[in-house]
Write a structure and sequence with these properties.
2 copies of one chain form a homodimer. With 404 residues, chain A is α/β, with parallel strands linked by helices. Helices cover 33% and strands 21% of the residues of chain A. Chains A and B meet through α3, α6 and β13 of A and α3, α6 and β13 of B.
Chain lengths: 404, 404
Amino acid sequence: MSPRRPVLAGALLVGQSGGPTAVINSSLAGVLYEAARQPAVRAVYGLRHGIRGLLAEDWQSLDGRDPRLIAGLRATPSAALGSARHRLDNTEIAQALAVLRRHDVRFLLLIGGNDSADTAARLAEAALLAGYPLQAVAVPKTIDNDLPATDHCPGYGSIARYVAVATAEAVLDTAAMRQTDPVKLIEVMGRYAGWVAAAATLAPLPAGLPPPLVYVPERPVAAEQVLADVEAAYRADNQVVVVLSENQTEPSPQGPRVLGADGEPEWVDAFGHPYYPSPAAYLCRRIRAELGLRARYDKPGTLQRTARALVSRVDEREAFAVGRAAVRAAVRGQGGHMVTLVRRGDVPYRVATGLAPLAAVANQHRLLPAEFIGPDARAATTLAFEAYLRPLLGGPLPEFRALR
Amino acid sequence: MSPRRPVLAGALLVGQSGGPTAVINSSLAGVLYEAARQPAVRAVYGLRHGIRGLLAEDWQSLDGRDPRLIAGLRATPSAALGSARHRLDNTEIAQALAVLRRHDVRFLLLIGGNDSADTAARLAEAALLAGYPLQAVAVPKTIDNDLPATDHCPGYGSIARYVAVATAEAVLDTAAMRQTDPVKLIEVMGRYAGWVAAAATLAPLPAGLPPPLVYVPERPVAAEQVLADVEAAYRADNQVVVVLSENQTEPSPQGPRVLGADGEPEWVDAFGHPYYPSPAAYLCRRIRAELGLRARYDKPGTLQRTARALVSRVDEREAFAVGRAAVRAAVRGQGGHMVTLVRRGDVPYRVATGLAPLAAVANQHRLLPAEFIGPDARAATTLAFEAYLRPLLGGPLPEFRALR
């Protein structure tokens, strides 16, 4: 009698895609850890630079039974396999499928955002049409927190913690230096959505220090309004910290566009995502010229998404958990899905993993809902938003002390 | 019999000055803690916004016997009393002296950099001429690490830890994204000196990842040379991280000037320190245009000097210790000095406090010495620099994992 053989069995390929995060390697670790425990998974390979590594057959064997590998990945930000921003064309889809067949790959796990979900969906569909039993599962990852169907995205809790703490530190710094540098702008990431900027409203400020002005792209704002807000805040408090998204919008007759840009992006990537000049630099110039106030801006750039010292422990654990859940889904034959996080409660915070069809995820963007957006820049988010975000920050924020 | 009365007794004023750091409040805590234990100190007041608070008689009573106050300050970055950049003119010196006399202030402690030492020296001299027994002591503080007479400055170890870790994280991020964003520049602080940028050479990189190119203002470099370095590094590794000072210099017929500036500062502060446009932005534009490589830059700005999550524990302890030592010096009648840190050994690291005459400190800048500067941007510092800096980082840096 031969041992009972699982219906589905073969090699597993895993890749990382899109912008790195502080915890995307924890999802990779979760995939490797679980894959090593599933008899259906005959071999595990990591794609170098995501889908490009698939086309180029550039991958490496990875052993999830090695505890040092798992622990090392869980402590390392960025994407250890290398990432990619590449949209497969139809020829490449066929090529990719041929590669998968040739190596008997039955499980394909892509850790990424909207674009990865799209790639996974297209490969799954092509496999189905070709009669090739491929289980393609997407593992959610994005600091932008803009994937639909999941309560939140691994990566977001950590950048939210970074932004909340950095904003408090900027308010403390500005309080000390307000006689020479009263206005500070911080330009944060977040693509089309204001999730990242909104985290600044949870900055752990000591009593007596003024909250930041926070702008989110969901609410277009004219530069003139920002200047009026800054002037009013300066009159009230002698100091102003502004937090805004790198893609903060302004109204225009043609609809919202990036604030301070004349409509022309500096650069457009392979997925058609435009990159604009800095709204913070633009506002800084106008604040100096029109309000006569010294204004400086900080642009933490990619440092904010890889800052390991401010990782949310909740985010890290969840990133690991979604990686494991994706492998379990794949070996159960539940390809064509993205793993989701399903919130069961805020206090105490409880969460489970779930699955959503890739078609419901690919190329969709979840913006801040209206009930999370407050009335103005001084009260930019609501209590509902705070209840949503607080548990994701992974424990208490630092407590700072003010002298008054 | 009345109890023996100390020769020197009276009120103590303490102020903070110059740019904030992650640990300047630890020095304030050290002053308060020690002052509460010295019978000669009859009362303790904190100046709001440094020397401006002295002129305006704007101060608050502070009690160093309150353990929550001490612990809170030691956990809070920036300058809790408020800082200032103000140079006293001769009229103000006389005014300040009158205020000190009126309130029977016998101990004046200024926590700051070169400019505070200058202010303390001028007040001490004026008091001596006026026959008023004032003990003015400077407490060293600067992320720039450019004070003479001390082995290093409180504040430096923490920003050095920040820069080393952030550089490693930027190299990891660039490794993941090198197919779309192969070149990253990080512009750090440091004024005239390269101490802060040099810390990038201790970035905790996993084996197999290329070290950053690091430039220091002590070694002027033409933009063309930077472009050639970036191109060579890109050819070798397919990715490049550049770390440079906000005041990186280039040679010019009139002598070194800020790279990419045409000689005109954007702004000059009250001490005559010039502020220039960003060398990183300038180099980014030229790298894109002349090398055809996508280049982005991060400017962590004031976030790098207040990042509490990356405080060096050694730095924090030393900041507290120099505050205590300053009070002891003041009550012993050793005014006219700045507290220094004297290194007694590298392995194991041992340090003591000492004193240097204010005249030897005020308005002097200690640049990176020649024996700390390596041959080129790829090897920007020496083993002697590493031996100097390593103990100041306050314990092991994070260990990151690479997959190769």
